[in-house]
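The pair is quoted verbatim underneath.

:::
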Amino acid sequence: MNEPTTLLYDVTDGIATITLNRPERLNAFVDEMEAELIEAFDRIDADDDVKAVVLTGAGRGFCAGMDVVDAGDAFVAWRTAETAPAGTQYDVPGDPMPRRRDGGGRVVLRMFDCLKPIIAAVNGPATGVGATMILAADIRLAADGAKFGFVFNRRGVIPESCSSWFLPRLVGMQTAMEWVLTGRVFKADEALAGGLVRSLHPAEELLPTAYALAAEIADNTAPVSAALARQLLWRMQGAEHPVIAHQAESLGINLRGVSADGAEGFASFVEKRPALFPNRVSSDLPNLFTTFPAPAFDPTSLEDPR
């Protein structure tokens, strides 16, 4: 991974920190950030020393959404940008401009597939893609002064970053509809009441709280088990029947129960000592989802079906 220009990346005590780092623009989302976030999560999954992830922003904002510099031509510039990551633009007959995959969606799909738990520490305003990006985190904390906004309808566009899938699952359909249809910016206490965030904290306590939660995961749980549990909870949101969960969990119990981690977990419990789990995500992660695969992205879906 090249040294990122829009992020800060650090690993300390088993916790990776990704900091959106364009504070002069309230960490607004650009093509380089899209690519670098995906690369950061690739790096995290490949590093067995990383047990959990904290995602936050530099300065007084988390992410102010898309970096709009061309006013009414913002999406013309986005669709035709030379900085678009490779393979994200598609030509469609009859359209004079290339069409392009949603960059926030690419980031969120990578977060969904991440093998390490993700905690979002929302330190300030999170609007547009800043609000939708955090939906793929496993736990979201916010500073008291944070604000949120699914503002797309007020900009004449639509929600993105797979938020139409994530948001109703996290907060329920009625709350999701209100926030999306009105497009209004709302305060942290409403985000807490609606279930978007787990807790609110004074600004100076936000990251320490996020790191304490990440450490509780990193210091006490088996990384392979955490990866599988994360996959189970997310993927079963789309399962048609609980028997699909039963099938995957039965396979997981059989495989993990006789693993080195399983032996160590129960031995450490009986012996009343901290566990030292030997299995590694990079080499020892079983596939529990052979009958429940993720569909491949189809670029033809970007074509107008009419």
Observations:
- The first strand starts at residue 7 and ends at 12.
